[in-house]
Write a structure and sequence with these properties.
By secondary structure, the chain is α/β, with parallel strands linked by helices. The protein contains seven helices and twelve strands. The longest helix is centred in the C-terminal third of the chain and has 6 residues, at about 230-235. The protein starts with 11 loop residues before the first strand and ends with a strand.
């Protein structure tokens, strides 16, 4: 049997940890991938293996483990992933995902960043800026990341606060949630942010209440709520449902 006919319906491929690997023609040509009734949709591989794959236009789910010998996905490869909906990366550094390539990922709805312990301070500028369809963001065991980039503010389709924020609970001092039109609620774990000093919630019309544990955020000095009609109503001074949870905040601005 010719290699181009070996797996005519292949949709899911997992390539393990190989220091070197030669792939059959079936997997190095987009035309061959499309000869069957289905095309490759899901791939898990080390970054060195990924470099051997020439075109992946059909891919919707990609997991990449970066290695010391291959630390980035090329711009050309990223640009071929226009249909990608889920991206999971492991042990990446600031060079692993070039911004020029990330511009192409307009369909990406879910991203997971794991064990990227070489990242320090803020996530690299450009990793999130162009992901206009992103709904879910998870950051796990990136111990030195203490801040999310400004582009998080532009992810208007985000339906909930990313769980990635939870590991910043002891260090984050400022959180601004702007123009998140699809976000419907704030999680109770937001009350764990004991270091938070400033909180802004703006243009989040579906958010209708605050987590009750916000009353325990004793370091919170400034809070602004605007263009969130129901939330503004619930925060009205002295009479509304959420007032007793926020009355301890010295500088409180509702609906301004």
């Amino acid at each position: 049997m010719r290699s181009t006919e070996a797996f005519p319906n292949l949709e899911d491929l997992d390539i393990g940890w190989f220091s070197s690997l030669a792939l059959p023609p079936l997997l190095t040509s987009l035309k061959n991938l499309k000869k069957g009734s289905a095309a490759l949709k899901k791939l898990k591989c080390g970054s060195l293996s990924l470099a051997l794959l020439s075109k992946l236009e059909t891919l919707t789910d990609l997991t990449v483990h970066f290695t010391n010998t291959c630390k980035c996905i090329t711009v050309e490869t990223l640009q071929s992933l226009a249909n990608l909906k889920k991206l999971e990366i492991w042990e990446a550094d600031e060079r692993s995902l070039p911004e020029e390539g990330m511009r192409a990922l307009k369909s990406l709805t879910s991203s997971s960043i794991n064990y990227c312990r070489k990242l320090m301070g803020c996530l690299p500028q450009g990793w999130l800026r162009h992901l206009t369809a992103l709904e879910e963001l998870d950051i796990f065991q990136c111990d030195r990341v203490v801040e999310l980039p400004d582009e998080l503010k532009s992810l208007s389709k985000m339906v909930s606060l990313p769980k990635a924020l939870q590991h910043l609970s002891s260090s984050l001092q400022l959180l601004s949630l702007n123009d998140l039109s699809q976000m419907s609620s704030l999680p109770e774990w937001l009350g764990d942010f004991m270091s938070l000093e400033e909180l802004t919630i703006s243009e989040c019309p579906k958010v209708t209440s605050l987590p009750t544990r916000i009353r325990g955020m004793t370091n919170l000095q400034f809070m602004l709520v605007m263009e969130c009609p129901e939330l503004e109503r619930r925060c009205e001074r002295e009479i509304a449902e959420d007032w007793h949870n926020i009355q301890h905040i010295p500088h409180l601005y509702i609906g301004h």
